[in-house]
Amino acid sequence: MAIGHESEDHAPLADSGTAKRLAVLIGNGCVEAADGSRLLDVPAIDRDLAAMATVLGDRESAGFEVTSLFEPPLIQARREIARVSHAATADDTVLIYYSGCSLRLGDQLFLPMRDADPAFIEATCLDADFVLSELRRSRSRQIVILLDGCHSGAFFANNRGVPNGFFALSSCAGDEMSYGDAEGGFFTRCLVDGLSGARADADGDGVVTTDELFRFVHPRCIAGGERVPPTTPQMWSWNLPRPIALTHVRRRIFVSYRRSDGAIADKLVSALEQRGFGVWLDREDIGGGRRWRDEIADAIRACDAMVFLMSAAALESDEVYQELAMARSLGRPIIPLQLGEVRLIGWHKAELGPIQAIRHDPGDGDRCWLAALIDAVRAACVAKRREPATR
Question: What's domain 252-386's architecture?
Answer without folding.
Answer: 3-Layer(aba) Sandwich (3.40)
